[in-house]
């Protein structure tokens, strides 16, 4: 079947049906899309989608960025000859009253989601001696996707800021990762220094490593300045991306 594509500005968008939602942790909702329209999307986990969700205050659609957590094109399971509908998963942090968080809380199977993408070319460097991934809960889907791409014997250090133990998730992919769950407790997201403190204390392994950091924008910018300025990390070994900021909700307002 031909992918269902609309044109939003100059970018073709895809409309897909929500097949299921799953509460992964108290503050993380997984939304599974399953639709023939996803067959041509060719997403790679870790890439970004720009999803369009309703802003219940203004009544307009707004765009928000989310990571492809998992993707499967149509196929046949080994033990079954029935074809499988293409599917794509995103994991959404239920942080508060933002349009995307509200949508993830309320969306039901059978509803549709429009998105543009995927975009993004980042992949873990297969030749690196070690990999350090750090971020808050918004970065978890991307970190899970990238860790799953590493060889089982890779040296992976993970520094993950979350509220408390209830938000911890399995980190499959590498046989023996060093996983540091950093609990900010009652502190508001974006106000804690647990990630700073952990990275200031970290002893990096020998050899040529790669560092990937994402999450609260001022926090990750501060970490980049520290790693480059005080630890002498080569900028080419460092990928830093701000995922959200308290002052700044970046809206693309479009006609409903
Ligand atoms: C490339 C990229 C990939 C991303 N992938 C994911 C992902 O896979 N999963 C995911 O959950 N998020 C992801 N994010 C972050 C997500 O886009 C933002 O958190 C987004 O602002 C949420 O939209 P919203 O409509 O819920 O809230 P908004 O309307 O954007 O914000 C409403 C208020 O909530 C605050 N806020 C926004 N996000 C958070 C938060 N996480 N915690 C606390 N306060 C917040 C804002 O500062 C604002 O004050 C990604 C961002 C980028 C740039």
Strand content: 35-45%
Distinct helical segment count: 4
Straight-line distance between termini? 26 Å
Please name the CATH architecture of the largest domain: Beta Barrel
Short characterization:
The chain is built from 4 helices and 13 strands. It is of the alpha/beta class and 256 residues long.
Overall description:
There is one protein chain. This protein is of the alpha/beta class. It folds into two domains: 5-119, Translation factors (Elongation Factor Tu (Ef-tu), domain 3), CATH 2.40.30; 130-244, Nucleotide-binding domain of ferredoxin-NADP reductase (FNR) module (Rossmann fold, 3-Layer(aba) Sandwich), CATH 3.40.50.80. The protein contains four helices and 13 strands. The protein has helices spanning 99-106, 140-149, 194-201, 217-229, and strands at residues 5-8, 11-25, 28-34, 48-54, 61-67, 70-72, 87-93, 112-119, 130-135, 156-162, 178-183, 209-216, 238-244. Strands 1, 2, 3, 4, 5, 6, 7 and 8 form an eight-stranded antiparallel sheet that branches. The protein has a five-stranded parallel sheet with strand order 11-10-9-12-13, with helices on both faces. The model is unreliable at 1-6 (pLDDT under 50). It binds flavin-adenine dinucleotide.
Label this structure with key terms.
256 residues; alpha/beta; Elongation Factor Tu (Ef-tu), domain 3; Rossmann fold; 2 domains; eight-stranded antiparallel beta sheet; five-stranded parallel beta sheet; 15% helix; 36% strand; binds flavin-adenine dinucleotide
Topology, please?
Elements: E1 5-8, E2 11-25, E3 28-34, E4 48-54, E5 61-67, E6 70-72, E7 87-93, H1 99-106, E8 112-119, E9 130-135, H2 140-149, E10 156-162, E11 178-183, H3 194-201, E12 209-216, H4 217-229, E13 238-244
Parallel strand pairs: 9-10, 9-12, 10-11, 12-13
Antiparallel strand pairs: 1-2, 2-3, 2-8, 3-7, 4-5, 4-8, 6-7
């Amino acid at each position: 079947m031909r992918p269902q594509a609309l044109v939003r500005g100059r970018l073709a968008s895809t409309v897909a049906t929500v097949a299921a939602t799953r509460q992964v942790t108290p503050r993380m909702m997984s939304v599974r899309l399953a639709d023939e329209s996803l067959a041509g999307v060719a997403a790679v986990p870790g890439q970004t989608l720009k999803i369009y969700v309703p802003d219940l205050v203004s009544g307009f659609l707004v765009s928000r960025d989310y990571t492809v957590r998992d993707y499967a094109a149509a196929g046949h399971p080994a033990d079954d000859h029935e074809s499988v509908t293409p599917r794509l998963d995103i994991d959404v942090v239920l942080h508060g009253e933002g349009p995307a968080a509200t949508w993830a809380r309320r969306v039901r199977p059978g509803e549709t989601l429009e998105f543009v993408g995927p975009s993004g070319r980042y992949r873990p460097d297969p030749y690196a001696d070690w990999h350090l991934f750090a971020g808050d809960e918004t970065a978890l889907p991307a970190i899970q996707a990238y860790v799953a791409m590493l060889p089982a014997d890779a040296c992976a250090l993970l520094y993950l800021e979350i509220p408390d133990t209830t938000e911890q998730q399995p980190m499959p992919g590498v046989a023996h990762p060093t996983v540091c769950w950093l609990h900010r407790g009652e502190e508001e997201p974006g106000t804690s220094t647990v990630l700073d403190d952990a990275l200031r204390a970290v002893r990096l392994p020998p050899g040529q490593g790669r560092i990937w950091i994402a999450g609260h924008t001022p926090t990750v910018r501060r970490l980049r300045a520290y790693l480059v300025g005080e630890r002498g990390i080569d900028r080419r070994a460092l990928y830093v991306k701000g995922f959200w900021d308290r002052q700044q909700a970046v809206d693309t307002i479009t006609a409903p």
